[in-house]
Amino acid sequence: MGSFIPQGLNTSTGQYGVNIDPVTGLPLAAVVEVLNVLPSTTDAANFSGRTIYVPSASALYVFNKNINNWLVLNGTSVIIGAVNGSPPTTPTPSAGQLYFDTDTQVVFLWNGVIWLAIGGALAAAIKTQVYTSGGTVFALGQTQPISNDYVELFLDGIRQTPSSDYNITGNTLITTSTVPVGVTVLIRVMQTAPLVQNSQVYSTSVVVNYPTTPNTTFPLSAVGVDPASVLVFVNGSLKTLSTDYSIVSQNTSIISILQIGTSGTSIIFRATTSVPHGLINGNQTMIVGGITPFNNNVVTITNVSSSVTFDFILSTMVTSATPSPALYFYPPTQSDAIVFTSALSNGNKFIAKYFKSVVPGGNVGEINILQSTGSGISLNAGKTGASLLVKSLVQGTNVSLIDSGTSIQINAELNSGYLNRVGINVNYYTPSSNTDYVGVANTTSQVIIDLSSIITGSPVSSGRTLTIKDESGGAGTNNIVINFGANVHLDGLSSYSITQNYGYVKLITDGYNWFKIGDGN
């Protein structure tokens, strides 16, 4: 049986507040140490089961002597902070670490390389198709097959019933009866926006027969509904957002926070909200908006004194960073609502179809990861918050970039590293715009090289060089004459002649005239 030593955590002295193996001298149990820096794997105090919590990494580590390495325990806590979509990377997070950004209300996951957004906004998209040509088969206007639940059909504004009036086959809608020419066919397709990461779309129908008293406001069963994703029908007729109804989202603003008492050494605060908050005792909520200090802005509801007040306890005084901070609590607990412009009376029926999404990301339809489809160099540079990062293109030797606003033009100098040589066997020749070298192989008669059409009076071709050489060895008898045109000159001359056997001349242009930079004439 091992002996019990009541204090200490020093292996060099053998002082451990746990049972010690009398043979090996190693602890038979482990306590949790709290250290700012994780010890190296070669630390003399390491033993299998040594457990250390590192606050800076918000992680718990245990040492495994068999593999001589630290292991991160599962269940790493969520870090909470206001980082505007850019969780910190220093110190380096552990794979699987979570970070909740109070600025964007998005949860991020560290995958070992970058932060990935794993929870946040909606990704609803609605595509509309209109036809008046009649028939029974109509294209949905989207590439992925979809079910009846996500398609609404209207004939001259009247909603049709799925299955009985129409069905979906692949990417087409097929009506049960032929639609006459001239009848307006309106198809609205609900679908997720194009995301790389998976998203799950939830839709529901709410059918209500109203009581005798007219009413304008009816709750939905979700919060944070995107108004663009809602379809509202009254007696089968599609209603128009802003004109016929509006979507009211939960108001999470806090009017005031006051100290109302004490509980032992702690302080009791009461928050007053602008609208009913829907919170209950024991709920945890986050309060943000310029008050410090705070326990990562998270509080536990200890008392709900009214529908617009709730109490919580903190160990320190809440102070404001600004004279009149704008305060909010998250997440909202009250459902969004549809508010009609005119009240619906007894006997009316409406159906509301809308999305609830669990989509990684900060913005509607956001692309979260850019992936390459080929084997070349990827443009993906990761993602920070709601920002997709791509690598930049830079100019290099013999390569220039032109940004036109909607496209990037890449200009590469042809034949970089060698010359574009053209050999001629004629007595009259006009070089092309990409010719670097003209070799004259036949001088049995005078040869004329015409450069009058190369320069267009623009600095675009500035810096271009051209070499012309007698490769036949006969230029001394039959000269090679270079003409430049009426308004273009070589060092002020309108023409130049190679008069030596195997002679040559090397020219450069500023885009307007030619200049001699070398010759063997």
- Using DSSP, what is the number of strands? 47
Secondary structure class reads mainly beta
Which geometry do the CA atoms define? Answer: flat
| Proper CATH architecture of the domain at 421-519 | Sandwich
Helix fraction by DSSP (H/I, runs of at least 4): under 10%
* Largest pleated sheet: 6 strands, antiparallel, barrel
- Number of helical elements: 0
Keyphrases for this structure?
521 residues; mainly beta; six-stranded antiparallel β-barrel; five-stranded mixed β-sheet; 47 strands; disordered N terminus
How would you sum up this structure, described in words?
- It is built from no helices and 47 strands.
- Helices cover 0% and strands 45% of the residues.
- The strands form 14 sheets. A six-stranded antiparallel barrel has the order 25-26-30-29-27-32.
- With 521 residues, it is mainly beta.
- Among the domains are: 70 residues, no CATH class; 78 residues; 99 residues, Jelly Rolls.
- The termini are far apart.
- The N terminus is likely disordered.
Provide a compact summary of the structure:
With 521 residues, the protein is mostly beta strands. Helix content is 0%, strand content 45%. The protein is flat and about 115 Å long.
List the helices and strands and how they pair.
Blueprint: E1 3-4, E2 9-10, E3 15-16, E4 19-20, E5 32-34, E6 51-54, E7 59-64, E8 69-72, E9 78-81, E10 98-101, E11 106-110, E12 115-119, E13 124-131, E14 135-139, E15 151-155, E16 158-159, E17 166-169, E18 172-179, E19 185-192, E20 200-209, E21 215-219, E22 231-234, E23 237-238, E24 245-248, E25 253-263, E26 266-273, E27 284-288, E28 291-292, E29 298-306, E30 309-314, E31 319-320, E32 327-330, E33 337-344, E34 349-358, E35 380-384, E36 387-390, E37 399-403, E38 408-412, E39 421-424, E40 428-429, E41 437-440, E42 447-450, E43 465-470, E44 480-483, E45 495-498, E46 504-509, E47 514-519
Parallel strand pairs: 5-6, 9-10, 39-41, 40-42, 41-43, 42-44
Antiparallel strand pairs: 1-4, 2-3, 6-7, 7-8, 10-11, 11-12, 13-19, 14-18, 15-16, 15-19, 17-18, 20-34, 21-33, 22-23, 22-34, 24-33, 25-26, 25-32, 26-30, 27-29, 27-32, 28-31, 29-30, 35-36, 37-38, 43-46, 44-45, 46-47
